[in-house]
Amino acid sequence: MPGTPNYTGLAGHSHDIPARAGVLLVNLGTPEAPTAAAVRPYLAQFLGDPRVIEYPRLLWKAILHGVILRVRPKRSAHAYSRIWTEQGSPLRVGSEALAAALQAELAQRRPGPVRVELAMRYGRPAVADTIARMQREGVRRLLVLPLYPQYSATSTGSVFDAVADTVKGLRWPPELRQINDYHDDPAYIAALAASVRAHWDRHGRGEKLLMSFHGIPERYLRAGDPYFCQCHATARLLREALGLTDEQAPMSFQSRVGRERWLHPYTDETVKALGRDGVKRLDAISPGFAVDCLETLEEIAMQNAEFFREAGGESMRYIRCLNADASHVDALAALVLRHTQGWPEFSPGYDAAAAATALAAARERARRASQGA
Ligand SMILES: C=CC1=C(C)c2cc3[nH]c(cc4nc(cc5[nH]c(cc1n2)c(C)c5CCC(=O)O)C(CCC(=O)O)=C4C)c(C)c3C=C
Ligand SMILES: [Fe+2]
Ligand SMILES: [Fe+2]
């Protein structure tokens, strides 16, 4: 029988629940509403993270609270209001849809009780709350999959911090595995290439395909962050899959904040230069984002498309992220299966019926205990 038998005589004790495996998808997080009041606490948590801003702490806290959090929330809220949907923030809606689709796919491919949950690094649902709840519900093995194809200390590394902090506080932490990155995963690259080809079939082919990745300060690259090289590797593999040259498919880095130098070339300068150089129809894709968000829908599809037109281009068409597309779900499911080898819940021969019976019995014992029977 899966799980640890309960020898304690304490009904509802944590041993009493059959073991299950969990997959925790983690994305960046997003404000609760497109308003300055909702954006402020989100930005305070995000920009207060020492993984994101590597700067002398006291000095940075003073700048953050004294200057940035007085100005930026209003500006960001305006940008969010341009992309907000009836269901809420695109990042949340897309991430939830992806988690649900992955849950369904894994349930089909594997016999065991596998739980897929979504947490956010900043805002809600918090990583700590989600892992603690999964633990209470019997998750004894946990795979953490940050929704960042390329590793950066600022994104993936920070997710691992949150996981480590959580595990420290648990009496009985789950067995833990973490996926660092999947920037060169063949199924992921194939899914990206297929999405570009589908776009070409529908809209015709632009003269160039711009691949824009989120930037980070160049200082972090020099300190050893592998992000820049992983972005280059993704870009090269995508070019190869599509049969394009560096010229036909340039890459760039977007979203810089502050005055220091970030990774080059910058996306805004690149689209302006392409427009000036006589490119008329430009395709753009963001292969560093699993799910569409402010940085793709507002910054690329709206802002940079406008920069391109102002510089003389005719139209820049944005190719959406893979979101909950079947090809994306298939790629992530295969990734999960590779990283969970040896876990009984994912292995053929797992007795799902026995686990379900044990779970029902444990629930019944807990119900009786709570009624004082
Ligand atoms: C100022 C430092 C920042 C670093 C370093 C950084 C790295 C980084 N970010 C992402 C992914 C996303 N970032 C998003 C928004 C966003 N990013 C920053 C700043 C840094 N990011 C800010 C201030 C914001 C908030 C919006 C704004 O005020 O401009 C998002 C979108 C969130 C959403 O709600 O839609 C994503 C996704 C990665 C992958 C990364 C390092 C590689
Ligand atoms: Fe960011
Ligand atoms: Fe941005």
TrEMBL record:
HAMAP family: Ferrochelatase
Keywords, ordered alphabetically: Cytoplasm, Heme biosynthesis, Iron, Lyase, Metal-binding, Porphyrin biosynthesis
Major site of localization recorded for this protein: cytoplasm
Keyword Nuclease attributed: no
Location of this chain's protein in the cell: Cytoplasm
Record protein name field: Ferrochelatase
Binding site for Fe(2+): H214, E295
Pfam family, one: Ferrochelatase
InterPro entries, A to Z: Ferrochelatase, Ferrochelatase_AS, Ferrochelatase_C, Ferrochelatase_N
Protein origin, superkingdom: Bacteria
Enzyme's top EC category: lyase
Pathway: Porphyrin-containing compound metabolism; protoheme biosynthesis; protoheme from protoporphyrin-IX: step 1/1
EC number(s) stated in the UniProt entry for this protein: 4.98.1.1
Catalytic activity: heme b + 2 H(+) = protoporphyrin IX + Fe(2+); Fe-coproporphyrin III + 2 H(+) = coproporphyrin III + Fe(2+)
SUPFAM superfamilies: Chelatase
Protein function: Catalyzes the ferrous insertion into protoporphyrin IX.
Family designation: Belongs to the ferrochelatase family.
